[in-house]
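Input sequence (251 aa), recorded before submission:
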Amino acid sequence: MIIVLAALASDACAQPVLNTTIALAELFDGTAIALHVSENGSGSPREQAAVAGVELRETAGDAVAEIVAAARDPDVAALVLGARGLHGGPRPAGHTALEVITRVTKPVAVVPPGARMPQRLARILVPLEGTSESSFALEETVELAHRRQLEILALHIHSPATVPAFSDHEPHGTLAWEDEFLTRYVAIPHEGVKLLRRLGVPSDDVVAVAHDTSAELIVLAWSQRLSAGRARVVSETLGRTEVPVLLIPTA
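Predicted structure, token format:
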């Protein structure tokens, strides 16, 4: 059985986390199951899980340790948890989320409080930095989205040093460049992907493009390192986005 596991807390993220889990379970062709870890007698989101029709498993102990252990189950294909951080604050997510995303070597979706997530996905945003390592990590998720006939928006953000010199003057050259880029970094048929190109700073533009295109999910490949100077795009996106972010480890 393929499981998409929701780490469910008794807070404002519970419903968006459940909706995201149900949507990802459909994407992964799996079953949504929720896990609630009770700490110091905290309440249970049992009623919300029941209304959503999602099985709830309950345990007690340290939240990070219990969630990481549950995610190691071979049947678990992906994990979903709430950010629980201050939106726009100095930390991109709460302590539990940050600990979990660096320790679980499977896709993990981080859901901001108040995210309006439908239970069925229609459009995803997939930033592509233009490296084989990151595109390989994203390949399976993009293929699943293609099979489900989702609208796939691939985003590549140029810096002034990498923007093609012909892009403002030669439409045929631009089309050829875009076709070659998709051939290198996207394994599915090109007609299943819309390539968006921007000139700017990835850590700023990913959230803006997600908002402008009404994307329901951002899918990012990352190294699972949050040390100083690393994962700036992931940190900025988690701290500012209003939609769930699916993080795919590159190794």
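Checked by second reader. The radius of gyration is 18 Å.
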